[in-house]
Design goal:
Blueprint (H helix, E strand, L loop, with lengths): L2 H15 L12 H12 L9 H5 L1 H5 L2 H8 L4
Length: 75
């Protein structure tokens, strides 16, 4: 999964969670989240996520920001 594929996924997560447009700024902007996800999950440094890097639950749950994005988005 490459950067351009992550952006619509993040936007969909925000939409499903009901996150307002006003809340999608700063570190919670789509662009910032994509950069952060790649930085944290791309273990081999190829600037894309393999299926294994993406689905590794430990990657998501051991990071407060990522787990907040996926599991606890609040308005």
């Amino acid at each position: 999964m490459e950067k351009h594929e992550l952006k619509p996924m993040i936007e969909s997560i925000y939409d499903l969670a009901g996150l307002s447009e006003n809340a999608r700024h700063g570190k919670y902007s789509t662009h910032a989240q994509v950069k952060y996800i790649l930085k944290k999950l791309d273990k081999n440094g190829d600037k894309r996520l393999s299926k294994q890097e993406f689905i590794d639950r430990q990657n998501w749950t051991n990071d407060e920001r990522l787990s907040h994005l996926i599991f606890n988005i609040e308005n």
